[in-house]
# Entry
Amino acid sequence: MINRLLASLLLFVFVLSAPREPASTTKAQTGRVVAIRNVTVIPVTGASPIANATVVITGERITAVGPATKVKIPQGARVINGTGKFLLPGFIEMHAHLSKTRASSMGLFIANGVTTLRDMGGDHEELLRWRREIRSGTRLGPRILMAGPYLESARNIERMRKDPPSERVEPFERTRIGVGSPEEARRVVAELAKREIDFIKIRTVQDRETYLALNKAADEHGLQLVGHVTGIPPEVVLASGQDGVEHAFYPSLQSKNKDERLAVWRKFAERGIVVVPTLVSIFEGTFPPTDKLRAIVEDEKGQIDPRRQYLAKYLVLDWREQVLEATDERRQTLRKIWEEMARRDFREMHEAGVELLVGSDAAVLNVFPGYSLHDEMALFVSELGMTPGEVIERATRRSAKFLGLADQIGTVEEGKIADLILLDANPLDDIHNTKRISAVILRGTLYDQRGIKRILSDVRAAPDIRIDDWGRTSSVRNP
# Structure
């Protein structure tokens, strides 16, 4: 029972606005210069914050960073007064499902300072189209790295096929691939390697041999393999070559003492295996009372939680389905697992040097696109004992390094792409200040409060807010 319940948890477990064209189609112009003057820069390079600094952005790139007395502002630049404000790199969301949150949600990520996103499984052709539109400047959205379809055990796919269409919202046929043997593992990975993907994601595995074959095949094709490890002992994960772990380990290392557990976690650190805990999916999608979760889902006007008004129709239908699984028994069991094992494991991983990165699992019940990444950062402080600076580093530079983008994003330095956030208060003093966004800069285009409001207005007006444009049962539920 506990294994099944935990598996359920782990499943659930992005001043001045741009020119007056639609916020969804703005694009940085080559040669345009923006200067932010007298701002405190939090560079996230390991160096101390730079007070009274000036940052110059030319086109999409940062071209100068330094004391305001030394950095010359080019003639004709748009000058932003940064007095009393704090500038840091754009945040990186390490676990989201855009196919479920839908296209409109990309504006929510930008409005919340999320400028890069790792999509952990969805409708591949649709995701590719959205990514190409973002790159061409015809759609507003974060930089997307993607797994494409994610991998399941053949048994799990067969179970899904038995459900009547009217009882399952997700069109899983377009998002998941069943793998039932080592031979299938090698074939599926070879096929995926031919597609435009950035890594491979596993969710459930058929057996140990198939799991090991998936890892070996991914390595042979030069692809990272990340995903769930429910039922896979940490020692096997170490031996497999898996590059990253999503959610928690279960069963955990409960039978070992602390020194023995730390020895295992140090091996993870040495191997460079990252872990993305997605704590907010537990605290917001599992622990609240079922009645509260149901009320939020049904509150179309956002009177209980203002974020609710920005959800796509499909996501609301999916959340309704998830509410049915939010039982008291499940909540109590998972609360016990968290308090007795999971919190301890994550804290010890951090102590041992394991790279814990920040992801929300956006699309899970009560986990809001863009907004909930800030809640995840706050949980890293309150539950895992990290300092705000440590958390910000993990949501920027360290994630960029793991994604192979450290030469482009993740810090405030000359030559980097200008994906930046301007805050009204110091996040190093209080992690909740990451929510006090004055402006977002996306690839050199700056959106102040007026621009952010336009983005949110565009989200509310998007067709997918009113119509399920993707779900397996859309014709049934949206006649």
Remarks:
- The two ends are 38 Å apart (CA to CA).
- The domain at 2-20+91-409+448-477 is CATH 3.20.20.140 (TIM Barrel).
